[in-house]
Amino acid sequence: VWTRTTPAEAQRAAPKTGPSMLEQESGGNFGRRLQGAGLTTVFPDAPAVPYTLNGGQPQTVWFDRVAMAYEAPEDEIGLRRSVEQVDKEIDRLVSAGLPMGKIGVAGFSMGAGLALHVGYGIGRYAGRLGMVASLSTFLARDSCFDAKARAKLAEPGSSRTPLLMAHGQHDPMIKLEWAQATHKRLVAAGVPVAEELLTFPGLGHDLCAEEVQLFLDFTLRHLGNSEKEL
């Protein structure tokens, strides 16, 4: 499940962060390799809701922001609405017979923050999925995530869902230090993530070929069957 990025935060800097960018940065191999490993991708879209950073006008965003800042309060109501939307996508996959350990959630920018909440925080499947990937994002300093993640990961039956987290070193929109602070909180909460945040020199609020390849390899390692030539 790839939670698409949102125009409000990333369209100018990274106009293609959905399937087209994943295909472009993988040399056209992203979908083919997923298919070869028996995987399919679901791309839910954010709802159009009033967005404070757009003057209160409707925009396709996963949740509201009153300011683009680490200290800005989290929109927990909007966040819970969007987590439930993604959880319902997972409900359909589970109802179709797919094991939770073969389902992953990933995203870019605001969608990546949502993926963290789905995979470790307030999501109904938190701590039980096969993997999470979170690219170019941060969690608000006052986020409900930290306490929820600690509790979820301590529950019996938690699968210790692995996380791939990465960020551009020259991101002008989501500061590297916000991502680094978020990463430290993830480690403190017990999220299975690398000890150091994975960063890419020269990369802004965007994806690059190396990052997409790492994401693809991570996904195949944790969710895929043996790849077949197509």
From TrEMBL:
Coiled coil: none
Record bears the keyword Phosphoprotein: no
Record-level GO cellular component terms: cytoplasm
Pfam family, one: Abhydrolase_2
Superkingdom of origin organism: Eukaryota
Gene Ontology MF, one: palmitoyl-(protein) hydrolase activity
Region of interest (Disordered), ranges: 1-30
Keywords in alphabetical order: Hydrolase
InterPro entries cross-referenced by the UniProt entry: AB_hydrolase_fold, LYPA1-2/EST-like, PLipase/COase/thioEstase
Phospholipase/carboxylesterase/thioesterase domain sequence ranges: 40-219
Hydrolase among keywords: yes
Family of this protein: Belongs to the AB hydrolase superfamily. AB hydrolase 2 family.
Protein name as annotated: Phospholipase/carboxylesterase/thioesterase domain-containing protein
Organism: Polarella glacialis (Dinoflagellate)
